[in-house]
């Protein structure tokens, strides 16, 4: 016998305890949804909420951000989710895997701070990140 009020409110449940019933309330913790801004080549900005644990690519695809093609579906076997980061974010995200570096090597328009968005996991620390989308994906 439970009652679910909403995702961010309370969960109520009646529990039989020995000689009677007691009401238990649990507070549902609202999931963290870091805000990510994708900036198209022409300067158009798309600010979306990403799910912690998913990739930046998934945040773009789920929110219909133009310019992120993701032809391989996030398997790091193409470079159609290429994004360009600022120096600070590029350094803080750590090094590229050998596979990611190889895929970026196939793209003629990479920069020193290019990454594949399928290889960047959304974390709470990424809240507010701004990423550039190149004019073309290869």
Structure at a glance:
With 138 residues, the protein is of the alpha+beta class. 15% of the residues lie in helices and 28% in strands.
Sheet-strand content, in percent, reads 25-35%
CATH-derived architecture of the largest domain: Roll
User: N- to C-terminal separation?
Assistant: 55 Å
CATH topology heading of the largest domain: Ubiquitin-like (UB roll)
Number of strands: 8
What is Rg?
20 Å
Give the % helix. 10-25%
Shape: elongated
Characterize the quaternary organization of these chains: single chain
Regions with little confidence, pLDDT below 50 for 5+ residues: 1-10
Across the major sheet, the strand order is 1-2-3
H-E string: EEEEEHEHHEE
Secondary-structure class: alpha+beta
Report the mean per-residue pLDDT as an integer. Answer: 87
CATH superfamily of the largest domain: Beta-grasp domain
| Tally of individual helices | 3
Sheet with the most strands, sense and barrel status: 3 strands, antiparallel
Work out the count of structural domains. Answer: 2
Give the topology, please.
Blueprint: E1 2-4, E2 10-17, E3 20-27, E4 35-39, E5 45-49, H1 56-62, E6 82-84, H2 87-92, H3 98-105, E7 114-116, E8 129-132
Parallel strand pairs: 4-8
Antiparallel strand pairs: 1-2, 2-3, 4-5, 6-7
